[in-house]
Task: inverse folding
């Protein structure tokens, strides 16, 4: 899943229409790739952030565990 | 309906269908019944293949920059995909497929990819290499040799080896993904066909891209086909074709009535095999379209043809 912003999604829809009617320029083509790549990195970043947040909650403090044993 | 013609050209799809369920092969490739509901998998896959082909042609043939070639490939994919209505529960939307293509060329950059399409004897680059080769079995009506056709995505030089190359999309790429190709008839047939066409392949490179919920992933696998496996493949192919001819001459194609009915999300003809009036059900849910594996075009047929 690419986390495209509403603006990015709208922009791609406009560009797809240009591809369909043959009016797209090479700059338009390159712009689509830029948007897709930004969406992919954004999705990867969001996944990493979510994992970090979950780990922070789940992992107990080792010193606290040791203190319980004493 | 009169007995349908026996195909003059066979390919891996027809043979795989016959091996899985002869009845399915009959309905789909002899009677040419195809589902009226378009398959998102087929459409998205074809759009992806189109994008790959355009990008590779742009870079290797027309010497465009990698960035321009990828952009042209993505544009071609989106143009091909068009306004196809992707089901809500499918990941293979136009944007997701375009993203998969962008991811592919980020993983395997055109200007540093180890797999480089070779120059074929014809002078053309090994991009979308197809073959049609005669078999030793004759057509039951015309008496001409039956033909076997195939088309691989690329023929590449990969670190000194000459390999065929095929791109796959998948829902997941686990540890077992590479192992499924070692006996896959599709690739044995490609190596056989390429050899017949004068191109000796050392093996086959398969590249998979998975489209996951929040990311893409990729794996590569190389599978080899020694000569003895090619000989076995050809012998088995001939045995299967003889069985196919026997079914056709008898006028009865066997049913699987087992695992094939539920594989890959379920056989599209499942509802036909569940009814006692298949001839009435078929036109309601299916359309007759003849696929030509050589020209790679579909022709719509009349129901009673």
Result:
């Amino acid at each position: 899943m690419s986390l495209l912003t509403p603006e990015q999604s709208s922009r791609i829809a406009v560009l797809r229409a240009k591809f369909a009617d043959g009016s797209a320029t090479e700059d338009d083509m390159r712009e689509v790739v830029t948007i897709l790549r930004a969406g992919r990195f954004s999705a990867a970043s969001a996944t990493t952030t979510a994992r970090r947040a979950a780990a922070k909650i789940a992992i107990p403090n080792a010193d606290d565990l040791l203190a319980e044993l004493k | 309906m009169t007995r349908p013609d026996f195909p003059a050209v066979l390919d891996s799809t027809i043979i795989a269908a016959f091996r899985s369920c002869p009845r399915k092969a009959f309905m789909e490739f002899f009677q040419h019944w195809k589902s009226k509901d378009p398959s998102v998998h087929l459409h998205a896959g074809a759009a992806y293949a189109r994008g790959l082909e355009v990008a590779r042609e742009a870079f290797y043939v027309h010497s465009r920059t990698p960035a321009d070639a990828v952009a042209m490939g993505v544009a071609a994919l989106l143009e091909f995909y068009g306004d196809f209505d992707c089901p809500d529960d499918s990941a293979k939307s136009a944007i997701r497929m375009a993203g998969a293509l962008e991811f592919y060329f980020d993983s395997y950059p055109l200007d540093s990819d180890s797999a480089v399409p070779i120059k074929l004897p014809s002078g053309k680059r090994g991009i979308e290499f197809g073959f049609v080769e005669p078999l030793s079995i004759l057509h039951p009506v015309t008496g001409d040799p039956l033909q076997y056709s195939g088309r691989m995505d690329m023929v590449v030089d990969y670190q000194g080896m000459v390999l065929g190359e095929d791109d796959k999309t998948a829902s997941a790429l686990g540890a077992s993904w590479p192992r499924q190709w070692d006996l896959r008839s599709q690739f044995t047939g490609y190596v056989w066909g390429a050899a017949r066409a004068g191109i000796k392949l050392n093996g086959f490179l398969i590249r998979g891209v998975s489209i996951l919920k929040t990311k893409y992933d990729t794996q590569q696998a190389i599978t080899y086909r020694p000569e003895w496996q090619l000989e076995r493949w050809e012998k088995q192919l001939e045995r299967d074709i003889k069985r196919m001819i026997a079914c056709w001459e008898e006028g009865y194609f066997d049913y699987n009535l087992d695992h094939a009915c539920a594989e890959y999300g379920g056989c599209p003809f499942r509802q036909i095999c569940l009814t006692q009036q298949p001839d009435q059900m078929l036109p309601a849910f299916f359309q007759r379209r003849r696929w030509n594996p050589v020209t790679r075009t579909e022709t719509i047929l009349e129901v009673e043809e």
